[in-house]
Every structure is written in structure tokens, then in C-alpha cells.
Design brief:
By secondary structure, the chain is α/β, with parallel strands linked by helices. It is built from 11 helices and 6 strands. The protein is elongated, with a radius of gyration of 18 Å.
Amino acid sequence: MKNIKHLFFDLDHTLWDFDKNSAETLAFLFDKYRFNQLHQMDMELFIAQFHQVNRALWELFNHNKINKHQLRELRIQQTFTNIGVEIQHIPATFNEEYITICPQKGNLFPHTIEILAYFSESHQLHILSNGFADIQAIKVASSGIAPYFKTIFTADTIGAKKPTRKFYNHVLHHLKTIPPHCLMVGDTLDADVIGAMNAGIKAVYFNPNQTTHDAKVDFEIQSLLALKDIFR
């Protein structure tokens, strides 16, 4: 791995703990709107349902089957309808409040700061995300990881999404580098790992939950600390 000069990191679910930050936001809104009293809703079920719906919709978004507006609207609507609450009972400002509050949360995966500090001394670090530029910028700032990154690449600024070759080729061209000098780290097999590998970039599958799969990957880790072992 001596040739690696650039480390590419996905943001959500890799560095920024989306599930934890989202759960805190949803719990706050759940209490604010007294969902347990008005609709006899269970907060843990509500949060779990949101995350299940959100993951499925992001998969569709990554493959251009829905757009940004549909993603944001449908994840709220489907979450409520799946647990038996009719759309007309969804608070009008719920979606806007969620989008405003959640990115300001700063929970990171364990060892994120340690790993970024360690590798920033010897490599250029970049974020590669299918998330929206304005939102990702807030997450990076609020979590304190902005100083470690040289560039943030997002799908809406590039005009293409991971896992397409167009996305990765744009990053390589912008950095004036080549695939053998880069390593991608991400939690999504399709977008982060397979997409990078198809572009000739070695990739690390970050799999903290040890999700079973049959994909052939270059590297797989359960902790960000294990990145150090790859370079030894």
C-alpha cells in the first residue's frame, strides 16, 4: 500500500454515525409532537421503521430510480403509513425539522478522529458521498472532521452518483491522480466498494455489523482502527 496517496471516505454510516444521529433527532421530534399520546406509537418501532424505509429509498436514489425530493418526502410518508398513521396526521413541518436538526448532530463511529488524524499526516483525505452537498458540509463541520479533509465530492456537484464510473473518474481527474494511488473506504458494497473497484480503485468494505455477503472485496474491516493494519 506504499503507492497510496489519496484516501477516499464515504461519510454516512462510515464516519458520521447516521443511525445514531438520526435516532436522536427522531426521538426529539417524537416527544415534541407527542406521538406516543396522540397515536399510541412506540418510539423504538418508529425509529426502526424510519431507518428501514430510508435505507431502501437511498438504494433507489443511488440508482436514479427516485430523485432528491421524492427521497425526502417518501421516507417520512412511508414511515408513518407503515406504522398505521395516515398521511394527514403527519406534522407539516416534520420533514423540514428533521433535515435541519439531524445534520447538526456530531456523533461519529468509534476511532474516527484517531484514524483521520493518523492518516492525514501522510495522505490526502477526501470525502466521496452521494449525499447532498449542503447537508454533508454541515455534518462535516458539526462533527469536527472538516480540518482533516482536502476535498468533499458529492453526487449533486459532480452530476453523477456512486457507483458509476463517471463519479469516480471525475474524482480522479479533479485530483490529477490515477487509481493505483487511491483507496476507497465505505459501508455500501454496491456504491462504495464495487463502484470503486470497477473504476480500478482498491476498496475497503467497512462492515461493523458483520453483515453477511458473497461479494469479493479487496479488504473488509469491522473497526476503523483496522485501516492501520492494511498499511502495515
